[in-house]
Specification:
seven-stranded mixed sheet; 1177 residues; 21 helices; eight-stranded mixed sheet; 32 strands; alpha/beta; SNARE binding; ER-Golgi transport
């Protein structure tokens, strides 16, 4: 399958042309003008000419395709509106005694060792951290009649896009919010959030129960009047506190009493099971002795896990860094209700543990990271096992208090589902300023009518504060995640290519912004006023056109740069290096032929694949063959170059052994056209595995390999990409030689940051040289031991390349994943020698950048290569006041060389609203994008600060964002209520997933290389990728409809949602787990795995067997559908319940406590509430 993005071809604008097959022409800005034909973008590309050209539809792979929607969620007793604070449900205060809680509620210190995603070997293409997806709640739903209680003081309104009307602006102080009210308790609310040590042993494993979705009802809305009473259908209602509304008042719904749960106990830090099979493979300093085989994991061991976990049981706590400054809230001001002890039960019915005596800010407050106290004596009777009187039989003061119901707190699954139902059916039209797009998890079409598609740009907020003081007060980061070359689904039109001839694109004289839909033409069209800097510029004579009665040019709809948010310009020679048009780029394949690479079968596999893959190099438009030239190098301690000139009968090898002063021994015949030299290349690829079959060389070089590729591209005067296949730490004597510096003892110390930094500056300098030449480096790593990804990845990272990692590579289990990754990497659309600049309108400016690139100044992002999967995240700061009337504008301009050697400018424009009320800011935020930014900010922070400092800063910023909302936007309510903005109600759950990720809170089994690898991966991820990486998608395969094409309904990431009789699939963008319960029906096991019993299922399967039955076909089609949505091929891991690999799977159930010390969702919500109360007091 070719992934080639085709080039943009088409005739000059303004001439009637036949319609372009398969595309619906966009109606730019409304009805077409009379006399302007609707289909104007067809015809072949005939070289540079005035006008602009139509894109050809892309072929192949579209990771941006969304997911099918599930049916409408069941609404319980009532809905809440997007303008009423969110209802959280029944809550219970902390107990004062009792047995320890179950594992799912356990808290461990952040330093605890944990079974994590890397528990058995290195991540292969990474197993991420606590993968949390970051869905943004719906923001512009219509109200349904009777859907919500609304405050008396305000009318029911609906979200207005664009510049809000005055009536909407009045609502600033009654924002949509979410309320978790606080139970009154005699025991102070602790913060048992996963930062405190355990206090007792793990509970006995019980039966899994699949709980249904709970009281957190979907938000549907409409312009109808609100009801006058509220019936929330909660298991209990406590009498309101003084000053709180009674249930019959039409005020925001709030549940009295949100008390954080007690610090509960958990599974011992080292209680993970022993590794499957053999111990971790030893390193290979030399050829094996007679009878020895190549080091590698046992067949049953997944290759993405680091090393076998210790088989020990509870081995004592490993306290992590204390959480500084986390003190408890003030004691509750209301007395406890008599009659019921406040008990919190676990999913298996055990009573939760007592409140230990932590030495905190006041009695009952935990001191994070301290040693556990002695376990409390077990309680003899569980009051909850005694039938309670019915609610209406009790006097008001005796109504029972319940623990926080996980079904009653905001559910990512419900938010995603609601957004799909509300916004998935209609196209997203980009013609309105400041419009918040649907979530990345919603499958929707985009119609470009003047603003760039959200597939290209997503913002943390679409309504920017007018002043810097307001921005500082809210602490909401203002950032955009930009994916300039994003792949579009086939139903959407690629950016049109505009050719203005030798004069080039029309630009502002002062700030050099490119012509765009927001420029204002004046003086009858003779001049235009820049929308970014307000400078007036003369319109060039060839570009002049008259204005109509509205002030628009009469050719408005004929010119993409006037009517569309995204388009391309053909660049003139002025935009080229040395004022010379570029040559087509080159691909150089550089293969490690050392002992490990040969013995694993890797070299033979690569050579076989390249024979066919070279026919699928990227090409443009109607080109019959790719313009890209190819070259080949093999290496161990020395480098071998190959002459594959078409006139040769056999390839010729030239060896360079002086790696200290690297040069390319041949120019003619090294870089060749594939079709012309096909027979010589095929002969070479046949010979390489044979030439080195008996090698005994174990040492490798690395930096000289990059230098060789760089010198080859310099000699050919072209840009290009190096594909390097490398297996070991480069310890041979050569520039860039590295030593093994892996040291687990540095974790949780101030020196931990050195593990993420390169060990030498040599590679930074080499990266700078590569960027200057347009030499991008893609790295495929196959380590059997420590490799120093933090150093080897520097050149890849700074040149805009990609890293792929396959630890303990084995042909039978890893071949499919590696070959799929290689095929996509070679075929995908890529721009070379790229420079990106982001311009903004007066009042804000781009101040910070995150991603895989190099910067030689403060404004230009330079990338030797930029592919369709890479994103650049840009942060903005105020440098002046903004105006509500004019809003704010962004223009991203990317200058790059296409794969055919054409120099182009790709332009994306976006207009945002500006606000003077904080409520408008909070109403227009995008949580998924916010989490993408916060994760990248934190992952960069670990390079220069202790991890604990980075974690604390994240928690503090999140608390400040929510405290500002509570103080300035929410209706007055008890301090015991947690109130979250509607658009940010998932911020706590997603932020907790980032905090629990292996970069910020590793278990003992996570290798240093894993952490460096994931840190680099996440920094280039788009919003959809971080979304599923941090909050993985969990599907019940048993519930899948075999007759439908739709995916089965997703469920929340918690162990208590799993049933022993079902099969589940979990995916996070890097791995797919298939979890099989012990009580699954034998017929299902037979249909899916082709074996007759649970015990016969093999953990070593890397693909499901192809069986001719509906269930097998359905599950394999689901996996294929998920693989097609991701930019990397995901590793399949089979997990049997109660098997050793299950702890690895549980690491991704991110709503539960993690063994590395991460808090559960409920506990973290309590902790955030405490932090917010502290800030407000």
């Amino acid at each position: 399958m070719s992934v080639n993005q085709q080039a943009h071809t088409g005739p000059p604008y303004g001439q009637p042309q036949p319609g372009y097959q398969g595309y619906q022409q966009p109606a730019y800005g409304g009805q077409p003008l009379p006399g302007v034909p609707q289909s104007q973008y067809g015809g072949p590309y005939n070289g540079p000419m005035p006008g602009y050209q139509q894109p050809v539809p892309p072929q192949g792979y579209f990771p941006s395709l969304g997911f099918p929607s599930k049916g409408s969620p069941v609404s319980l007793n009532s809905d809440t509106s997007s303008l009423a604070p969110n209802f959280i449900g029944s809550l219970r205060a902390p107990p004062t005694s009792g047995a320890p809680p179950p594992a799912s509620g356990a808290s461990l210190p952040s330093g605890h060792p944990g079974y994590n995603q890397f528990g058995h070997g290195d991540v292969q293409n990474g197993i991420p951290a606590s993968a949390a997806s970051m869905q943004r709640p719906p923001t512009s739903q219509p109200f349904l009649p009777g859907s919500a209680p609304t405050p008396v003081s305000q009318p029911a309104t609906f979200q207005q896009y664009g510049h809000p009307p005055a009536s909407v602006q009045q609502l600033s102080n009654h924002m949509a919010g979410m309320t978790i009210a606080s139970t009154t308790a005699s025991a102070p609310p602790p913060a048992g959030l996963g930062y405190g040590p355990p206090t007792s042993a793990p509970p006995v494993s019980g039966i899994f129960t699949a709980t249904g979705s709970g009281l957190y009802t979907p938000y549907t809305a409409s312009p109808g009047p609100p009801p006058t009473t509220v019936s929330q259908g909660l298991p209990l209602a406590q009498p309101p506190f003084p000053g709180q509304p009674t249930p019959t008042q039409r005020l925001p719904t709030q549940v009295p009493g949100f008390a954080p749960p007690p610090p509960s106990t958990g599974i011992g830090p080292s209680s993970y099971p022993p590794a499957t099979g053999a111990p971790r493979p030893p390193t290979m300093p030399g050829p094996p002795l007679p009878g020895q085989t190549l080091a590698g994991p046992p067949a049953s061991q997944p290759n993405h896990v680091s090393s076998p976990p210790p088989p020990s049981t509870m081995s004592g706590p490993h306290p992590g860094p204390p959480m500084g400054g986390l003190h408890g809230p003030p004691p509750p001001t209301h007395p406890p209700q008599p009659g019921y002890q406040m008990q919190q039960n676990g999913p298996f019915g055990q009573v939760r543990g007592p409140q230990p005596n932590y030495g905190g800010a006041y009695p009952g407050t935990p001191n994070y990271g301290t040693q556990p106290g002695p376990p409390a004596p077990p309680k003899r009777l569980d009051p909850d096992s005694i039938p309670s009187p019915q609610l209406n039989e009790l006097p008001p003061q005796q109504k029972p208090r319940h623990r926080i119901d996980p079904d009653a707190i905001p559910s990512p699954i419900q938010v995603i589902e609601d957004d799909r139902n509300n916004r998935g059916s209609e196209p997203f039209v980009t013609g309105v300023r400041g419009q918040v797009p649907p979530l990345v998890t919603t499958n929707f079409l985009v119609k470009d009518q003047g603003n760039a598609s959200p597939r290209y740009i997503r913002c943390t907020s679409y309504n920017i504060p007018c002043t810097s003081d307001m921005a500082k007060q809210s602490q909401v980061p203002l950032a955009a995640v930009i994916k300039p070359l994003a792949t579009l689904p086939p139903e959407e039109t690629l950016p049109y290519l505009v050719d203005h001839g030798e004069s080039g694109p029309v630009r502002c004289n002062r700030c050099k912004a490119y012509m765009c839909p927001f420029m204002q033409f004046i003086e009858g069209g003779r001049r235009f006023q820049c929308c970014f800097c307000s400078c007036v510029t003369e319109v060039p004579p060839h570009y002049f056109q008259h204005l109509d009665h509205t002030g628009k040019r009469v050719d408005f709809y004929d010119r993409p740069e006037l009517s569309l948010g995204s388009y391309e310009f053909l660049a003139t020679v002025d935009y080229c290096k040395n004022n010379k048009f570029p040559s087509p780029p080159a691909f150089i394949f550089m293969i490690d032929v050392s002992y490990n690479a040969m013995k694993s079968g890797l070299v033979r596999l690569i050579c076989e694949e390249l024979k066919s893959l070279l026919d699928y190099l990227p090409r443009e438009g109607n080109m019959e063959e790719s313009a890209i030239r190819v070259g080949f190098v093999t290496y161990n301690k020395v480098l071998h170059f190959y002459n594959v000139k078409s006139s040769l009968a056999q390839p010729q090898m030239m060896v360079v052994s002086d790696v200290a002063d690297m040069f390319v021994p041949l120019l003619d015949g090294f870089l060749v056209n594939v079709n012309e030299s096909r027979t010589v290349i095929a002969s070479l690829l046949d010979q390489i595995p044979e030439m080195f079959a008996d090698t005994r060389e174990t040492e490798t070089v690395f930096a000289p390999v990059i230098q060789a590729g760089l010198e080859a591209l310099k000699a050919a005067e072209c840009a290009g990409k190096l594909f390097i296949f490398h297996t070991s730490l480069p310890i041979a004597e050569a520039p860039g030689k590295l030593k093994n510096r892996d040291d687990k003892k540095l974790i949780n110390t101030d020196k931990e940051k050195t593990l993420f930094q390169p060990q030498t500056s040599f590679y930074n300098n080499l990266a700078k040289d590569c960027v200057a030449q347009g030499c991008c480096v893609d790295l495929f790593l196959f380590p059997n031991q420590y490799l120093d990804v933090a150093t080897l990845g520097v050149v890849t990272y700074q040149t805009g390349g990609s890293i792929y990692k396959y630890a303990y590579f084995q042909l039978e289990t890893d071949q499919d994943r590696f070959l799929n990754d290689l095929r996509r990497d070679v075929q995908k659309e890529v721009g070379f020698d790229a420079v990106m600049r982001v311009r903004t309108s007066t009042g804000i400016r781009a101040t910070d950048f995150f991603g895989a690139f190099y910067m030689s100044n403060t404004t230009d992002v330079e990338m030797a290569g930029l592919d369709c999967d890479k994103t650049i995240t840009v942060e903005f700061k105020h440098d002046d006041k903004l105006s509500e009337d004019s809003g704010a504008l962004l223009q991203c301009a990317l200058l790059y060389t296409s794969c055919a050697g054409q120099r182009r400018l790709r332009i994306h424009n976006l207009s945002l609203n500006c606000c003077t009320q904080l409520a408008d800011l909070y109403r227009n935020c995008e949580t998924d994008t916010l989490i993408n930014y916060l994760a990248k900010y934190a992952y960069r922070g670990v390079l220069s600060s202790p991890v604990k400092t980075v974690r604390d800063a994240l928690i503090n910023q999140c608390a400040q964002i929510l405290a500002c909302y509570r103080k300035n936007c929410a209706s007055p309510s008890s301090a015991g209520q947690l109130i979250l903005p509607e658009c940010m109600k998932l911020l706590p759950v997603y932020l907790n997933c980032v905090l629990k990720s292996d970069v910020l809170q590793p278990g003992l089994e996570v290798t240093t290389d894993d952490r460096a690898y994931i840190r680099q991966l996440v920094t280039s991820m788009d919003v959809a990728e971080t979304n599923v990486f941090f909050y993985p998608r969990l599907l019940s395969l048993t519930k899948a409809d075999v007759d439908s094409d739709a995916l089965p309904a997703a469920i929340r990431n918690s162990e208590e949602r799993l049933s022993r009789g079902d099969i589940y699939l979990l995916e996070n963008g890097l791995n797919i787990f298939v979890w099989v319960g012990v009580n699954v029906q034998q017929s299902l096991i037979q249909n899916l795995f082709g074996v007759s019993s649970f015990s016969q299922i093999s953990n070593a399967l890397s693909t499901l067997p192809v069986l001719e039955n509906p269930f097998s076909k359905k599950v394999r089609s689901i996996i294929d559908m998920l693989q097609a949505q991701r930019s990397r091929y995901m590793k399949l891991i089979i997990v049997k319940q109660e098997d050793k690999l299950e702890m690895l799977f549980k690491h991704f159930l991110v709503e539960d406590k993690s063994l590395s010390g991460g808090a559960s969702y409920v506990d973290f919500l309590c902790h955030m509430h405490k932090e917010i109360r502290q800030l407000l007091s």
